[in-house]
Design brief:
Keywords: Signal. The protein is an alpha/beta fold. The chain has seven helices and twelve strands. It binds 2-acetamido-2-deoxy-beta-D-glucopyranose (4 copies) and zinc ion.
């Protein structure tokens, strides 16, 4: 091989390796559609086709109107939702909506008791299995409830999904939220159920505590079994609604792929070694 061939070879390999991601991206969002679950009292989702078809210009064209309450489906609660003079949606710094994923698995407990509330012990158990909850974490309860979505009777766990006094679903205990606020530093607290307060709550202490601490909530988070309980980075990409009290969010995670990235760098090292060898042979 001549020197310029080496350069070409190495640069092609760098491009292949540089172009391959060393993480996968996992969607944690339910579809926003006419099956989207809203808290009772909200107006219905409105998806209206404005145009869908051939135009006189000879090209295909689609455009729709969407009307949605802020708090439906996979969405964010802004701190202002339950506390006066706290951050509204457009004011939340974007860096507060990204952080290490901490998934608190209470699926067995929620299966036994629908009114389960995540405790300080559950948080300490996560820490004993992994490490201290990292700074700026996005801490989300996985109760298994995301699998019930979008069946409102199953999600609210009642025969009367329009009567919130009959709701039975798990969420956070206020003591665990107080502990997260005072002992740790978290960016977002989430659930795979419709509320950060459990179904039977009448006073919404979790919403109030989070609002007061300027910590957004994430509700109806999907697909939590597809990411590890530790090691992901979660992004809560809420629609930037001016003066919003929340909003629909595309929540997703990146998860490192260990094998592929090391394979690539091993392959690269091997080729660089071979090139060095070729040059060595040419010189001598
Ligand atoms: C909901 O959306 C589906 C698919 O777009 C449509 O077929 C159905 O008629 C819609 N239902 C209502 C109640 O709007
Ligand atoms: C839905 O939005 C369309 C387009 O703005 C409007 O014409 C229609 O009246 C709305 N439907 C409801 C039920 O509000
Ligand atoms: C739109 O235009 C294409 C190409 O002219 C044609 O094949 C198709 O049948 C048209 N579709 C409709 C819905 O008119
Ligand atoms: C929701 O779940 C209930 C209970 O399993 C079932 O009876 C009902 O048919 C489901 N509804 C829909 C729309 O799938
Ligand atoms: Zn909400």
């Amino acid at each position: 091989m001549r020197p310029h061939t080496h350069v070409l070879f190495v640069s092609v390999l760098l491009r292949i390796c540089g172009g391959s991601l060393d993480f996968k991206v996992v969607d944690l969002t339910h579809d926003h559609s006419n099956t989207t679950i809203y808290w009772p009292g909200n107006p219905e989702y409105n998806f209206t086709i404005l145009a869908r078809g051939n135009t006189t210009g000879g090209y295909w064209y689609e455009s729709n109107y969407i009307g949605t309450a802020e708090h439906g489906g996979t969405h964010l609660d802004s701190p202002a939702h339950f506390y006066k003079d706290r951050l509204r949606t457009h004011n939340i710094p974007i860096e507060n909506l990204v952080g290490p994923g901490v998934i608190i698995n209470v699926k067995n407990k929620a299966a036994e008791k629908a009114d389960y509330q995540v405790s300080i012990d559950d948080l300490k158990q996560w820490e004993s299995m992994y490490k201290q909850i990292p700074e700026k974490s996005i801490v989300i309860m996985n109760s298994g409830w995301h699998e019930r979505y979008p069946n409102a009777s199953l999600v609210f766990n009642t025969d009367s999904p329009t009567d919130s006094s009959t709701f039975h679903f798990p969420a956070w205990h206020e003591k665990a939220i107080e502990w997260l606020i005072s002992e740790r530093s978290v960016n977002v607290v989430g659930v795979d159920t419709p509320s950060t307060d459990f179904g039977q709550s009448k006073t919404f202490p979790v919403h109030i505590l989070l609002g007061q601490a300027n910590i957004p909530g994430a509700e109806n988070v999907a697909n939590l079994d597809a990411i590890p309980e530790a090691g992901s980075i979660i992004f809560v990409a809420v629609t930037k609604i001016y003066d919003g009290s929340g909003g629909p969010a595309r929540i997703f995670a990146t998860v490192p792929i260990k094998d592929t990235s090391s394979g690539c760098s091993h392959g690269l090292s091997f080729v660089l070694l071979m090139c060095a060898l070729c040059i060595f042979i040419q010189i001598f």
